[in-house]
Amino acid sequence: MARMRPDALAVARAAKGFMPHDEGLALHELGRAAARIGPLLEIGSYCGKSAVYLGTAAQEADTVLFTIDHHHGSTENQAGWEHHDPEVVDPRTGRMDTLPFLRRTIEDAALEEAVIAIVGDSPTVAGHWSTSVGLLFIDGGHALDVAMADYEAWSGFVAPGGVLAIHDVFEDPALGGQAPFLVWQRAVADGFSPVQVVGSLRALRR
Ligand code: SAH
Ligand code: MG
Description:
7 helices, binds S-adenosyl-L-homocysteine, Rossmann fold, binds magnesium ion
């Protein structure tokens, strides 16, 4: 299945982040196909782990991945929460800053021409956006209001035939937070067709 460059694969596996390898490979495959329709767009860059899987797909298809993050972390990434990593805290401010990690990951994977980082608040960026995309990957904040705001702001930019991918979808509340699942249900209600499930990754087609 995976035809990803081995050097990029190694960078993806080594990068800090929250993307299991099998789900990353599935993202790469989805990205390869969707890149024929338009550029790829990710919400939630963090340190660039998923951006390597998607960015390699964009590079292979001669298009780009836009990856959006304010780089100060979601609620669930802050100190005291489950997904906190003290190494990504800026000692100068005490706040999280994952942007330097993203830059290094993209540089190490030789993806600087294919991956375009956009640093800012996702719905704010969407408010000034107008380009339709071949694939939209929603993996930003997982609080319900934040995840739903991402969906509402960005889902309209998925081109006909394009892909909407949602991460961390857990139907069973015992396995994880419900916001991404509620977003997935909303997407189905809005007419997106489910096409693939790999772990907690769900893909739908517009
Ligand atoms: N895709 C990453 C994980 C993303 S974690 C991986 O493969 O490892 C979720 C990210 O969403 C965090 O880095 C956080 O800063 C970002 N985020 C949360 N809310 C956001 C918002 N409103 N705008 C931009 N980024 C946001
Ligand atoms: Mg995730």
